[in-house]
């Protein structure tokens, strides 16, 4: 794995007012808000242009990595080994010669102060001639940036100041590394649901194999019948206990009209949010088939902990049995 020599993969946290030393910051655009990725990259690109450098672009994958790093940092679990792991799973596939690094800075009241400190703290990396793209994430004044060079896929035209909220996404390759399990994009589902739990300081869910198997049985039965039924789901308790799985308590929900992992999270949160955010539940199983879905919450007699609350790949998903 290649990293920028000018930037260690260790986390640097800058608190207090930054000291501006020789940084060129154009008056426009005014960065008077917080977490505006388009405004931040516009400012960075203007400053690169003043140094006769080409513009860089916002990359969706890099921003997802930045969000994952931010959540690990907020939980006090961000390590160099975690970055190595996420590099191998999410960034390395972006190109055979890709190099990447990251930086975490806080606490800032607005994007202008952040960009000023960023350009001082990682000047050589941010104004490198070969820099291709960045990913950004902000949470409560703490900013995470991921930088990358050597990307295989790039947009045909790069705007200095992006006109919309979209970020560049590389074309997906059909390599069999799908994140879909039991008909649901599991990393996306867990990331979205765990983000909601994080807001109330509840631990992230761990996938329980037995609960996932039972959820699959439920949707298979509903799909076979062609309509939602409570008879199948009501058997879930005795089915799981019959497998001698050491579950303390269970709560299941099921329905139809599944559209996507995010839509399922929206339904669960709107109708069963009290259970989804209940800190006494620690494990989960989920499945869908032909639009019928099932989600099972459970708690164990033993403690479990999710080290990857926002997994990017199936390898990142925390599981137990």
Apparent shape: elongated
Alpha-beta classification: alpha/beta
Percent strand equals 15-25%
Considering the protein shown, what is the CATH homologous superfamily of the largest domain? CAP
CATH topology of the largest domain: Pathogenesis-related Protein p14a
Unreliable stretches covering 5 or more consecutive residues: 1-28, 173-177
The percent range for helix content is 25-40%
In terms of topology, how is this protein built?
Blueprint: H1 37-49, E1 57-58, H2 60-74, H3 80-91, E2 99-105, H4 111-121, H5 123-126, E3 131-139, E4 142-149, E5 180-181, E6 184-185, H6 186-199, E7 206-208, H7 209-225, H8 231-234, H9 236-242, E8 247-255, H10 261-276, E9 283-289, E10 292-300, E11 319-320
Helix pairs in contact: 1-4, 2-3, 6-10
Structural notes for this entry:
There is one protein chain. The chain is of the alpha/beta class. The chain has 2 domains: 1-170, Pathogenesis-related Protein p14a; 180-320, Pathogenesis-related Protein p14a (3-Layer(aba) Sandwich), CATH 3.40.33.10. The protein has 10 helices and 11 strands. It has a 5-stranded mixed β-sheet, with helices on both faces. It has a 4-stranded mixed β-sheet with strand order 1-3-4-2. A two-stranded antiparallel sheet has the order 5-6. A hairpin with a 2-residue loop joins strand 3 (131-139) and strand 4. Helix 1 crosses helix 4 (111-121) and helix 2 (60-74) runs antiparallel to helix 3.
How would you sum up this structure in a few lines?
This protein has 321 residues and is an alpha/beta fold. 35% of the residues lie in helices and 19% in strands. It has 10 helices and 11 strands.
């Amino acid at each position: 794995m290649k990293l920028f020599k000018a930037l260690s993969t260790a986390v640097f946290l800058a608190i207090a007012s930054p000291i501006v030393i020789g940084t060129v910051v154009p008056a426009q655009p005014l960065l008077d808000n917080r977490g505006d990725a388009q405004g931040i990259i516009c400012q960075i690109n203007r400053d690169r242009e003043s140094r006769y450098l080409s513009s860089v672009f916002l990359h969706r994958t890099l921003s997802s990595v930045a969000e994952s790093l931010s959540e690990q940092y907020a939980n006090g679990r961000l390590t160099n080994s975690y970055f190595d792991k996420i590099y191998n799973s999410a960034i390395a596939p972006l190109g055979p010669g890709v190099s990447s690094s990251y930086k975490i800075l806080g606490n800032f009241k607005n994007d202008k102060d952040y960009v000023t400190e960023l350009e001082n703290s990682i000047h050589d990396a941010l104004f490198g001639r070969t820099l291709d793209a960045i990913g950004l994430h902000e949470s409560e004044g703490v900013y995470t940036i991921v930088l990358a060079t050597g990307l295989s896929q790039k947009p045909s035209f790069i705007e200095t100041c992006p006109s919309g909220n979209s970020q560049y996404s590389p074309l997906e390759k059909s390599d069999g590394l799908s994140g879909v399990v039991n008909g649901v994009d599991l990393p996306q589902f867990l990331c979205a649901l765990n983000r909601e739990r994080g807001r109330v300081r509840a631990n992230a869910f761990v996938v329980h194999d037995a609960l996932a198997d039972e959820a699959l049985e439920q949707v298979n039965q509903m799909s076979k019948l062609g309509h939602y039924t409570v008879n199948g789901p009501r058997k879930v308790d005795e089915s799981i206990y019959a497998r001698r799985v050491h579950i303390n308590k269970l709560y299941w929900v099921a329905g139809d009209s599944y559209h996507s992992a995010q839509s399922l999270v929206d339904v669960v949160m709107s109708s069963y949010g009290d259970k989804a955010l209940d800190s006494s539940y620690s494990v989960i199983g989920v499945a869908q088939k032909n639009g019928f879905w099932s989600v099972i919450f459970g708690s164990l007699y033993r403690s479990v902990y999710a080290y990857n609350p926002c997994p990017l790949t199936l390898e990142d998903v925390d599981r137990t049995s």
